[in-house]
Amino acid sequence: MRVTIFPMTRPRAHIPDFPGWHLLGAFPDNEPDDVGSWLLIESGEALLLEIPPGLTSKIVKAALYEKKATLRFATASHDHEDHFDQDAWLDLARAFPHAKFLHPFTVEGDHLLHLGKEPVWLIKAPKHSLTDVVTVFRGVAMTGDIELGMLASVNKEVPIAIKRQSMRWLRDFGERTGYRVHSTVSAHLNSVRQVIHWPELFEV
């Protein structure tokens, strides 16, 4: 497994060019510890991933126009305010009334969506927060703020028994679905792991 920790002062320049993953920027100010917002695109259909403060419908519309894509879904890795801004969420919901907005609280188990014929998996796994969701698309997993390879977290929101259950659920994702994940990226764009052995990230 190759692990790369990238500096975050210019996150767009340091994130690998994952096919179908289009980084809109790090919000709100493109500063270290800001949150990356992505469009996942396949066959002209898009999912918006992460709704941080500073993201606007104007930014999203411009990116969709550039990529010749239509927004079908929007979601976030969890409902902490730096990832899920309620004002931005409402602005986007008004701007894209035909898209499905999936609050992370509502996701359960392995939730399967499709962009074109390409699967998008939303995996519910409370570990850093009670609403944690890992999004998997084209072999890349965006892990939000979940700390990999450990039970410890920066907060005490999630009971240890639920953390253990979530790590096992994530570990066994490939076995349950037959899907292979080859890379991960964190929500704050400061950790990218490539050529991974997925189960090892969740052995605790």
What is the helix fraction of residues, given as a range?
Answer: 10-25%
The total count of helices amounts to 5
Secondary-structure element series = EHEEEHEHEEEEEHHEE
Strand content: 25-35%
- Residue stretches low in confidence (pLDDT < 50, at least 5 long) are 1-13
The name of the CATH superfamily reads Ribonuclease Z/Hydroxyacylglutathione hydrolase-like
CATH class: Alpha Beta
Q: How many separate structural domains?
A: 1
Largest sheet: 7 strands, mixed
Question: What structural category characterises the helix and strand content?
Answer: alpha+beta
Give the CA-based shape. Answer: globular
Write a structural description.
The protein is of the alpha+beta class and 204 residues long. The chain has one domain: Metallo-beta-lactamase, Chain A, CATH 3.60.15. It is 21% helix and 29% strand. It contains five helices and twelve strands. It has a seven-stranded mixed sheet with strand order 1-12-11-10-9-8-7, with no helix packed on it. Strand 4, helix 2 and strand 5 form a beta-alpha-beta unit. The chain is globular, with a radius of gyration of 16 Å. The two termini are 17 Å apart. The relative contact order is 0.18. The N terminus is likely disordered.
Write the SSE topology.
Elements: E1 2-4, H1 11-14, E2 21-27, E3 35-42, E4 45-49, H2 57-67, E5 70-75, H3 86-95, E6 100-102, E7 110-115, E8 118-124, E9 133-137, E10 140-142, H4 160-171, H5 173-177, E11 183-185, E12 192-194
Parallel strand pairs: 4-5, 5-6, 10-11
Antiparallel strand pairs: 1-12, 2-3, 3-4, 7-8, 8-9, 9-10, 11-12
